[in-house]
Amino acid sequence: MKRVIGIAAAAALVLAVSANAQEKKGPSEHNMTGCVQKGATEKQAVLTNTAGKGPKLIGVVESTANLAPHAGHQIEITGVNVPVAEAEAMKPAPPKADHYMKITALKMVSATCPS
């Protein structure tokens, strides 16, 4: 009986440590490339003409950089996913998109967008 209780206690400890590690991770950053169209604020935008497979429209719900001067430019963004329900509940709401992100960094790729 003591052995069963010991095993159960060890299993509970492993589960608690595992759950705690997953909570601390948070969403992982990723990069995407596209052309900037203005949003409702200078920190919101939509990226069109996205490169590669994946979403065709990326809604930027928040950015550490001012996106307004990059309208019409092709940029590479780094950031994290934002769930659709959370993005569409924001005030002001970002433009409709296939995928939403909070941007932590951006790099201008070209002063023009490919046709």
How does the SSE layout of this entry go?
Elements: H1 2-25, E1 30-38, E2 45-48, E3 58-63, E4 74-82, H2 84-88, E5 99-110
Parallel strand pairs: 3-5
Antiparallel strand pairs: 1-2, 1-4, 2-3, 4-5
Task: Write a brief caption for the model.
By secondary structure, this protein is an alpha+beta fold. It is built from 2 helices and 5 strands, in the order H-E-E-E-E-H-E.
Q: Describe it for me?
A:
- The structure is a single chain.
- The chain is of the alpha+beta class and 115 residues long.
- The protein has one domain (30-110): Nucleic acid-binding proteins (OB fold (Dihydrolipoamide Acetyltransferase, E2P)), CATH 2.40.50.
- The chain has 2 helices and 5 strands; from the N terminus they run αββββαβ.
- The protein has helices at residues 2-25, 84-88; strands spanning 30-38, 45-48, 58-63, 74-82, 99-110.
- The protein has a 5-stranded mixed barrel.
- The termini are far apart.
Looking at this protein, list some descriptive labels.
alpha+beta; 115 residues; OB fold (Dihydrolipoamide Acetyltransferase, E2P); five-stranded mixed β-barrel; single chain; elongated
Helix content: 25-40%
Nearest-integer average pLDDT: 81
Largest sheet, in brief, is: 5 strands, mixed, barrel
Flag low-confidence runs. Answer: none
